[in-house]
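wait is this the right file?? whatever heres the structure
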């Protein structure tokens, strides 16, 4: 069980805080940091929403608000959490359940987070805003402000700078300085570019504006619920105060001043919500442009990889063709040797003596006189013929290389024609873009 601490910041805000959750599964579905009976006592004692336990498996930034439908003592329930963030097996999630009593103006709740989440900084910010703690949406607004900090915009700017370097490496788009080139040695590493394109895409998808736009809309609805019920409660109190003759004027003036400050804070928070919506709209358009440019570069890189694979296939086909020609030559030579053996073997067999004794003729010199010149002539003719065939083979190899090169150029030209026909559409009837 994780330790938790009860802290009272001001009279209007009482929150059970747990900022040092260490268990890596503390935000997993159906997991509670407290024993079941302790958790139940806390929820019932602080009038927290029972639906909070049903949100343990939600994904993305989540915000929900509603009345508890208790006419005698109405409360505004709020559940705000982002608990699906994990990195290297550790969680950076947080959750918050709040309950605001319109009768007393006190906000109670339970907040849990890890040391690496924004909860610690948000609570520090809340302590500095103790005078405005009477508004139940103050802490959710502070957390939203930390989620949409300028670091989020800076990350998208960094991703765009990374994209410009990738565009220079893939399509030679000249929008960077010389020292910012992706590969300083001038060599294009396709595998490294592919990995970096994927990583850049992941950074761009970090904290999608659409999710926070929907969350901001839900927070505006919650502020509308708070304003409606708060005004109704204030009107009922005013009627009761008018009937009470013994009420001090100082107390009435203090309540009016508190109401004006709360209304001013409420309008300020609504203005901040509108500011975030405008900011998220611009960020959404910026991210959309980045994603489209990443898509173009990915397709261009896939085209380069396809051309490289086509070239490798051409080289393999060329090697196979060379091997086939060499095998054909060897087969022809073996056939020639077999034919010569077939022609000379019968005569040699018939010329040999069968059963006679060894006889040495006195005209043996005639054999050497005829055999040596004829053998030399045959060997010379064979050498001349072999050299002639080698020259012919060399010419055939040269013609083969020319054919392979021509075939490769034809294939690459067709690939380039297809690519250019898709990208440069202004070469058709329509005029080029200005």
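ok assuming it is, sequence goes like this
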């Amino acid at each position: 069980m994780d330790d938790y601490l009860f802290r009272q910041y001001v009279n209007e805000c009482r929150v059970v805080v747990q900022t040092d959750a260490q268990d890596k599964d503390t935000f997993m579905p159906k997991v509670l940091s407290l024993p079941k009976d302790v958790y139940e006592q806390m929820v019932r004692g602080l009038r927290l929403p029972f639906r909070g336990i049903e949100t343990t498996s939600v994904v993305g930034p989540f915000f929900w608000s509603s009345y508890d439908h208790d006419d005698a003592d109405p409360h505004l329930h709020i559940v705000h959490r982002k608990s699906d963030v994990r990195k290297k097996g550790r969680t950076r999630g947080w959750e918050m359940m709040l309950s605001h009593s319109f009768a007393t103006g006190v906000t109670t709740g339970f907040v849990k987070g890890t040391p690496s989440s924004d909860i610690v900084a948000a609570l520090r910010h809340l302590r500095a805003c103790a005078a405005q703690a009477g508004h139940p949406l103050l802490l959710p607004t502070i957390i939203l402000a930390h989620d949409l900090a300028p670091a989020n915009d800076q990350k998208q700017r960094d991703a765009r700078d990374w994209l410009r370097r990738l565009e220079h490496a893939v399509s030679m788009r000249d929008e960077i300085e010389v020292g910012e080139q992706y590969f300083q040695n001038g060599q294009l590493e396709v595998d490294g570019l592919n990995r970096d394109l994927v990583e850049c895409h992941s950074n761009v998808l970090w904290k999608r504006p659409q999710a926070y736009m929907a969350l901001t809309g839900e927070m505006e609805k919650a502020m509308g619920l708070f304003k409606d019920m708060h005004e109704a409660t204030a009107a009922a109190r005013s009627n009761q105060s008018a009937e009470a003759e013994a009420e001090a004027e100082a107390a009435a003036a203090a309540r009016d001043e508190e109401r004006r400050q709360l209304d001013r804070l409420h309008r300020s928070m609504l203005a901040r919500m509108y500011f975030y919506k405008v900011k998220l709209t611009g960020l959404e358009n910026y991210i959309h442009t980045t994603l489209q440019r990443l898509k173009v570069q990915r397709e261009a890189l896939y085209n380069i990889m396809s051309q490289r694979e086509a070239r490798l296939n051409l080289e393999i086909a060329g090697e196979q063709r060379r091997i086939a020609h060499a095998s054909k030559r060897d087969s022809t030579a073996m056939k020639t040797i077999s034919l010569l053996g077939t022609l000379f073997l019968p005569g040699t067999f018939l010329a040999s003596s069968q059963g006679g004794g060894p006889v040495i003729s006195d005209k043996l010199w005639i054999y050497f006189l005829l055999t040596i010149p004829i053998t030399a002539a045959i060997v010379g003719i064979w050498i001349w013929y072999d050299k002639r065939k080698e020259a012919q083979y060399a010419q055939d190899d040269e013609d083969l290389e020319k054919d392979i090169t021509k075939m490769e150029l034809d294939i690459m030209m067709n690939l380039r024609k297809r690519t250019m026909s898709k990208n440069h559409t202004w070469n058709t009837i329509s005029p080029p873009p200005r």
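Confidence is low (pLDDT under 50) at residues 1-11, 419-434. so i think its the right one actually
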